[in-house]
Amino acid sequence: MNRFIVVDFETTGSHPRQGDSIIQIGAVAIDDGQITESYSTLINPGQPIPPFITQLTGITDDMVADAPTLEEALPRFLRMLDGRAFVAHNAAFDLQFLQEALLSQGYYTFDGYVLDTVELSRFLMPMQNSYRLGELADDLQIEHDRPHQADSDAMATARLFLHLLDILRQLPLVTVQRLQMLVSSFRTDIDVLLRHIEMEKLAEVPLLDESGTKTDESELWDVYRQLALRKREGRAKTPLERAEPLTKPFAEMLEQMLDEKAALGRSLPGYQRREAQEAMMRAIHDAMSDGAHLLVEAGTGTGKSLAYLLPSIVWAKQHREPVVISTHTIHLQEQLFHKDIPALKQSLPFDFTAATLKGRGNYLCLRKFEQSLEEPVEGNSQELRLVKGQMLTWLTQTETGDVEELSLPAAGQLYWQQVKSDAASCLHRNCPWFSRCYYFQARERARDADILIVNHALLISDLQAENRILPPYETAVIDEAHHLEEIATAHLGKQLSTAGMMFLLDRAAAEEGSVVRRFAAELQDWQAEDGGRVAETLAEMDKLFPALREKALQMTQLLYQWAADRGEETTDTGRETVRYRKESFSGRHERIRRAARRVIEALTAYAASMDRLLQCIPADEKPPYELRSLRTDVSGLVDELQETAELLHFFLLEPDAEYVCWMEVEARTPRKHVYLHAAPLKVADALAHPLFAAKRSLILTSATLTVKNSFAYMIERFGLDRMPEERVRTLALPSPFAYEEQGLLFIPSDFPAPGKESDEHYLEAVVQGCLDVIRAAGGRTLILFTSHSMLRQVYQAMKEQLADEPYTLLGHGIDSSNRSKLVRLFQRLEHGVLLGTSSFWEGVDIPGEALSCLVIVRLPFTPPNHPVYQGRAEQLKADGKNAFMSLALPQAVIQFKQGVGRLIRHHLDRGVVVVFDGRIVESRYGRAFLQSLPPFQVQTGTWPELRERIGPFLAQETGTEL
Question: Which GO molecular function annotation, any one, does this entry have (predicted)?
Answer without folding.
Answer: 3'-5' exonuclease activity
